[in-house]
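Q: Sequence in, structure out?
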Amino acid sequence: MTANAQAEQPVFSIEKLYVKDLSLEVPHAPRIFLDRENPQVNVQLRTEGSKIDEGVFEVTLTVTVSAKLPDDRNVFLVEAAQAGIFQIRNVPEDDLEPVMMIGCPNILFPYARETISDAITRAGFQPVILAPVNFESLYQAQQQQAASAKTGELPIQ
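A: Exactly. Output:
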């Protein structure tokens, strides 16, 4: 293989993984620890990516987990922004967004899951273990929703 052919090969590497932001709220402590009702847990995910240099991108996966009691009192709210710096070179422009919105979050998710579980445990609650996430299907659903919004059609449910 020539040096020029090697230079054209796609490159994907992890440069750095880190917690960009972490917040935890237990608004009704200490009384909430005496409550024996099971809370309703809600999980939300958001992925963002941006170019920070030529061939270098930051991708952030933000996971928000909240727990509420039936009477609508918040038990806890934890949000973790797990980020990574990725080197992505020689990837066709059309493939760049899927790599950043599917491949990178797949790498970041286990770290975000551990951060969330650890924060909730340190707050005095039973750990919340997040179920695996299919970022490819989330990305495809988001693309379909965006395409329907452009045409004015309602997405099929």
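The chain has one domain: 10-149.
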